[in-house]
Each structure stands twice: as C-alpha cells, then as structure tokens.
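Can you give me the bound-state structure? Components:
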Amino acid sequence: MLGKKKLEPSGVDTTAMATTEPEKEQPWQELGLKQDEYEEIKNILGRRPTSSELAMYSVMWSEHCSYKSSKIYLRQFGEKVTDEMKTHLMVGMGENAGVVDIGEGLAVTFKVESHNHPSYIEPFQGAATGVGGIVRDILSMGARPIAVMDQLRFGAPGNTDTARVVHGVVDGISFYGNCLGLPNIGGETVFDSVYQGNPLVNALSIGSMKHEDLQLAKASNPGDLVILFGARTGADGIGGVSVLASETFESTGPTKRPAVQVGDPFAEKVLIECCLELFHSGVVAGIQDLGGAGISCATSELASNGGKGMRVQLQNVLLRDSTLTPEEILMSESQERMCAVVPKKKLKAFEEIVNKWEVEYSVLGDVIDEDRLYINWGHEEIVNVPPRTVAHDGPVYERPVTYPSYQADLNAANTSSLPRSENPVEIASQLLELIASPNQADKSWITAQYDKYVGGNTALSMPDDSGMIRVSEESGLGVALATDANGKYAYLNPYEGARLALAEAYRNVAVTGAVPRAVTNCLNFGSPENPEVMWQFKEATAGLADACLELGIPVTGGNVSFYNQSGDVAIYPTPVVGVLGVIDDVARRIPSGWQDDGNNIYLLGETFDELDGSAWAKDIHDHLGGQPPKVDLAKEKLLAELLHGASIQGLIESAHDLSEGGLGIAVLEAALRFNIGARIWLGDVQDRDNLDLTAAMFSESQSRVLVTVGREDDVKFQALCETRGVPCLRIGVTDATSGLIEIKDVADLKLDDIRSSWVSTMPELFG
Amino acid sequence: MPKIIVEIMPKQDLLDPQGKAVANAMHRAGNKEITAVRIGKRIELHFDREITEKDLAEAKEQASAFLSNDVIEDVVSVTKAD
Amino acid sequence: MKIGVITYPGTLDDRDAQRAIRLAGAEPVALWHADENLKKVDAVVLPGGFSYGDYLRCGAIAAKAPATKEVIRLAGQGLPVLGICNGFQILVESHLLPGGLIRNENQHFVCRDQKLKVENNQTAWTSLFEKDEEILIPLKNGEGGYIATDETLKMLEGENRIAFRYVETNPNGSMNDIAGLTNERGNVVGLMPHPEHAVEPGFGPDTSIAMKSGIDGLKFFQSVLQQVVNA
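Here's the bound-state model for the whole set.
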C-alpha cells in the first residue's frame, strides 16, 4: 500500500491515530450512541474507534438498523413456528426479504417497510424513496419486482398540514412506482388526528423468480471482487454524520448536509434491468442493495453473512460530490445503488452488461479469508473491525415495560354509553354519513394516480379485497396480497389488535379464492423509551406470533418503525400485517362486487353486538373505548377453507369481507363496485343473532363475508356451508335494474345518490 | 469555468399549464399583482477550454435541433459565460 | 409476420406490446435502442414508458437513438409504425407526427379506462375498426396533453389525420380532444392510450359484460397483420 515517495497525511482519522491519540474527544452522543455502547465499541476494538468506525457503529447500531429494542420480541416469529409452517419457506427472516415457494419451480419474495419520518419532513421524496428502497430489497433476492402496494396513515382530513403530506406522498409514490413500471395493486388509506405529526408511509413490494434465481447477500469466497454500481454517491441522508466533518483536519466540505434522500426512478429502472441480466448470466456470487447506512451496511453485512472479511479502498467510490469526507461516504444514503460480489473470472462479463445499460460501477475491493473488514482511504487505514460486531452483534435492549395507566379506564369506557337508535331514518342517515366519511369514501382520487396495468398481469387491484398478480402466463399460477391494520383496535388491546390485523389480511386473501401462505409485517409504534409503548409492542408481537402459529402461516420478514410520536403523544400502535396467498389459476379469482341480476346474497359468519372501536363509534360519535371485536382464528380458517372449496367448484360470483363499518358498509361497497342494486333484509340476522338495528348494521364482528351465488348454485352452496359448519344466512338478492339498495323496514337508498357523495369526499378535501 | 448558457421558453401563444398552476398558487398565497407566470429552462454547456465562435454556432444549432422542441418552444438566447 | 418492439432505457410497456403482438398472431421481435439493425421486421411498435426518465422533454432523447433514426427512414418508405404513449411522444419529437405533448391539465398522472372514437379507420393500425367505432382503452400518463398551432389543427382536421378522439371525458386537456394522430400516408400512428393493455380477457378494462374483459386493443395489432399480408 505504501509507495516509495513520502505521502502526506490527508487529515482523516486513521486506525494508527486511534492508538496514538486514545483520549481524543468523540461525538458519540451526537451520533446517537449511549455511553455503554461507546465503551463496548472500545472493548471490541481494544482502542478508541476512528471517526469512520464511530460513524459505522453509530448508524448500524441505531434502532432503525439494529432493531435493538425489538429483537427480543421479534425472535418469537422465528420460534413460534412448526416444521409444517416452514414447508414453503425458502428464505426466512434475516435476509433482505422472505422467499416463498409457490409451485411449478417458481417463488415469490415480498416485504413491507416503513419510511415514516422522511415522509413527514419531505413527503414527496420520503414516499418516493420508500418505494425505491423496498423494490431494491426485492431485487436483491434475485427476483423481478412485479407489483407494489402502500399503506398510508394521515392526520385529520380538515387540517391543512394533512393536505401537504397527502399530496406529497401520493405524488411521490405515483412518480416513483409508475416510472419503475410496477403496477400498484392495492393498499389502504386511513385518516386520524393521532397521525397528525406522524404520518405513516409503509410500502410493500413483491417479486417473482424461478427457484434457481435466488440470490443471497453474502461474500463467502476469498478473492471475489466487491463492486459498487448504480448511482454515484452523494450527500443524501447524512444529516447526523456531518458532525464528524469537523473532526478531520481538512474540513473541505460544507458543514450543512441534507438529511433527505432524493430518488431517481429512471436510474432504478435501469438498475433493475441491469441486475436481472447480471443475475441470469450467472456473473454475481452475492448481492446487497444499499439502503439505510449505505456502504457501511453493504460491506459489513456481505462480509458477516459470508463468514469472511473484506478489504475496501474507499477512494474508489464514484462520487457526485467531491467534497465528501470518508465518514460521509460511509454513511451516505444515496439511492439506486447496489453492491455485488463478483468472482474475478466473471469481471469482464460483468463489465459488458453494466456498460450495455450505461450503469456506472467501481471495484471497491475484495473478499478476504479473515474475520475482518479493512477500509482504507488512500494509503491510510480508517476502518479495521470485525464485521459481525457491526452488522449483527449490535446491542440488544430489554426496555422497561409498563401496563399503561390509562388502559383500564379506556377498556371500561365502552360503547354501551352511546345512544342507539331504532329509528330507521336515523340508521339510514348514519349509514350515508359513514360511507361518505373520509375513511370509507372512495379512494379513486389516490388510486387513479397509480398505474395498475403495466406488466399485463394484474388480475385484481383496488378496490378489490386483495391485489392479485399472475406469475405464470402459461398456467395462470398467481399470488394474492392483502395488508391490514386497525390502530383503534390495537390501541384498545394490542395483543388482540395484532391478531385482528392478521385475521383481516388472511380473510381478504381468502375471499379472492387464494390460499394464504405467508406473512410480512410493518410494526409502527411510538417511542421504545416509553414503557407503555413497549408494553404495546410486547403485546402486539406476541399476538401476531401466536396468531401466525394458530393459522399455520409463518412471518417471512418485516420491519419495525419506532419513535412515531410527537412529544408525549404516541400514535396508536399500528401493526400492519400483510398476507400472501397462492392461487393455482388467476382465472378462478373472485371479485368483491356484485355483477349479476337475481343472485342471492349470503352473509357468512355470526354477528355479535361489537361496536367498541368501530367506525360507527369513532366517526359518528367520536368515541374510542372498550374492547375490540373478538376473533376466533379457528373460525377464520374454516371460513377460508369454505371459500376456497366453493371457488374451486365455481359456486361464488363475488365475495367481500366485512370489516370497518360492518354489514351496512360492506353491502354498499359490494353494490357500488359495478353499480348493482339489491333488496336486503336484516330481520333474519337480527333474530338469529339477537341484535338491535344498530348492531346489525354497524357491528364489526369478525369472520364474516358477504357472498353472492347464482340461482343455479344455491343448493350446492348452502349444503357446502352446512357440511363445513359455517353459518350461512340469505339476507338479500341483487337487482341490476332498480338503481336502489332497498333495506327492508329501514330505507330505500338511491345508488346514484350514495355514489355521488361517496366519490366526492376525497376530491373536495384534496382535489 | 467557461460555459454557454441556453435559455428556452414555451412558445408565447401555446399553453403553459405549469405556469398557470404556479400563477394560481402565487395568487392564493397573496401575490395578486402577478398577471401571469411562464416557466422555461436554462441549460448550461460546460467546457474545459476557451469557448470559440464555432462552439457558439454549434450550440445555437443544438439548441434548436435538440435542446428545444421548435414546435412548442422558442430558444430565447444562447450566450457565452465564464 | 415479424413486428419489432424497441426497448429504450426506461421503457416500461415493451413486454406488454410483445404479448399483444403474440396474441394477434404475429412474432414479436425485441429491438435495442442503440442498434440500428431492425432485423427486417414488417412493422415497429414504439412502446410506452419513461424513456430516459422523461429527461429534457418526453421522448426527446429517445428520438435521437440509432434505432429511432432507422425507424424514421423506413417510415418514409411505408413501414407501419405504432407509437404508444411515450412512443407517441417519440414520434412527435421525431417530427413524424406534428404538434407537441405537454403536462396534463390537472397536473396529475391519471390511470383510467378511456372511451375513444376511431375517426380514421384507413390507417395501417385501424383498418379492422368501423368508422367512428367507440372503443375502451386504458390511459395512463402525466404528459398527455396534445397541443398544436391553429394552422396545424386546421390541417389535421381537414385531412382527416385525427385517428382517435377522446369521448365523454378529456382526461388531459388535449386540444380538440385529440387522442391520437396518423401521418398522411396512414402508416405511422401515434396515440396516448395503451391498446396493449386491452388485449387479453381477464386483464383489460371492465366492460358491461364482465370485469376486466375489454380487448378492444387487439384489433390494432390484428389490423397491421392485414397490411403486411396485402403489401
């Protein structure tokens, strides 16, 4: 490394200086490390860290990258698992994304992630780079990304800041996702003042591949080259690390660095095509995408996962800003970059492909047969660490957990205190108010900004209950995806809330005719330093893990987002659960809306008086208290199996699950889908389940689905329900010509009137 | 660093929806005296040597042939700058 | 029959165009933007997407690609060329079709099922349609507003060069509701909507018959087969 001529020191903090200047003051606190963590680093290295090493540890040991507050709870997802549940699991948690076998030698990889805080600061770029990041995770598994979904939570609709965030986020997702050529096949949008200062932007992506295409993020062969390619490295996202700039002798760069990452979807589209060609040419031995913690993460993870080491020359990184210091380069979160491990003999082939796509690259170094990561800046060594300690052996916290002081009162204050009318006029009025309220209103204002057609494989998308993508054009084999979360339920009871989220996503997959097979999650919570929030987290993770075990579908990967709070006010615990299902032929899919005249409408499942935490309670009466609806997962399983069996026999014309807003909203949604009216009667369900009109209309009892069946299949369908033990009650018949929803003894509602208020809410608020 | 600056504006008589949207936003923010907003582009062509007359002539040609679409845009100016 | 589909960096709907060609009964041929060899195809499709990220102007950089130059040359000799969305933008930038395409009036990307009227069924790509037939084709873009001088518009109207017009709703503020154009000869056609997304039952727009059953786009690709056969 050292040449014959005398080399001037560059002013960077080297490993040599770390030994000769042990007492140097270091800004470990500003970088977010605790005293004991700083001491631990010194322990590991046997000296103080260099400023580059300090930067790496501070970011890799941050909550976001190390999961230090959540690790002890996330373990449950890997522990509460049977061998049977792992049957289709090709890659589980711990990798960039889980991989699930779907048959015919094909697999899919999927994951949901959060980009909450950046989306509040800079909604457009925050949301855009959120999409970019999750798509790269999918790509790095060796898959072609084939779809995206998003789960959005905004503040109160009337608040002007909400509009700022809504416009930026939707534009950002539209901009990035559309430009990548990925259909947006579903998601959810929720408004609640609790998210005012902490909007949630979760993004999901799914990719498909042949089994043999699987790529992993490891560098296991000494001699292989480590190559950084894609966009050049700039100053994106390094706000916090700039404090280190002042630590070097020559502080050539400006001290103010932007904290926001800026995305270029065109660069990512080209990167996707380039990577897929690299993968299929067998040129790459390992691949990692660069997300949070950029090069620090890519190098340490690739080395650690492969059980080997790495030697890197940091000056080889192609820069778009020549004033960046080594610390800044290590921390940069510039988008659209990947790191490949390439055997020397494949280098020429690698170069041909990246040159064809006009993608820039540079060889950073090579894999070595030592458990060490060496990074040099020119001839000076600035990093010399054991990679595992950076990437995987971060701190593990057992944060204090306290049952919230408000919880008992909250659970006691249930909806029994709310006025319940038996007056049909009032019930009808509440129903119309609810269908036009921001949370239930038509979201086309958002979804029309997303491309749902690109790729030509979208079998179902919004507003259907799950998104469905055809994976094999030959056989029609496809997958269905649904994501759900109800922050109100989780606030009332985090354990049950997580179970309910899983149940709803599971049911949403089942109603389209697919069989649920795997789970992902994005756990959005307040500060882990708040013991009451930690209690919520502990309960929710246990609830989800137990529920996955009961339903027999494993968590394949996910994400945790903490610190979603403003001052002392945390968001509702919002565990977003995504379920993936498999369908042997997408031609068999079941839509959510009524399509034909004269079909019988059946309500599957039982209804109880469960209004606590409901849309009726919150949006009509501004009430949140009590206990969320009970969920019986055995019943959910039974229901899903019935739907599958019925769909194989072609008995079902449409199926729509009941959730927020209960039966009344489900009926209107199914009618509005293709503009088909109906004659409905609630008397039978009121009698059988002992309900008043309010409960019949608005209760949010679980395990219920609205199904339409053609006249010719009635007998068979009812018999099937009876055999399977699923309660089945005929509650209506479709009418394609009346233009009315006639609810017996309640009201005759004009579909056109309902539609016009349903479609105008969002444009009026945000148009 | 020597460079040539090319300035392009949308054609006078054609729609400028971006300009219109920005004008509306400025009006909403209280700047009601502004009668119109039109948005164009400024493109810099960098050189690592002195700029010649030939460079300028070629830049003018590229400005109308490629950097602008003469159906919907006008090249307002092509000038040398340091 | 071989129909070429050019892929530029940033092209998105090339695979969809290839599928449409296959379903129509022809052989799709993948062409690369940097290669002026068009492999002796009988027709060319410039597909949708965001070539070069819409940098400078939509389609501006792609219009200068070697493959595009060759398409321009052969179009002059009668080669059937279909430009879809970004492809239409490339045709306009290449001056194979007149006018310009700018940002949607409402400033947002819009994806909707759009009713169109086929006003010129004498082109290479519309010969199987009835005159003034109404079809349903998915539309998805942010820069689809067609503009042209009064003079150009008069000429286009007078010479029946407007191939498709928006019906019921004008989704992007295009002048005279112009959705697509043809050249004088009728071999070059450009339109903003995406026929390749309405070719396969189960994956097209909803119709009154069934969900996602619309396949009005297939006739575009079937029409050109007739051209080639008769040539």
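A couple of observations. The mean pLDDT of chain A is 94. Chain A has three domains: 1-61+216-394, 81-214+454-589, 434-441+591-767.
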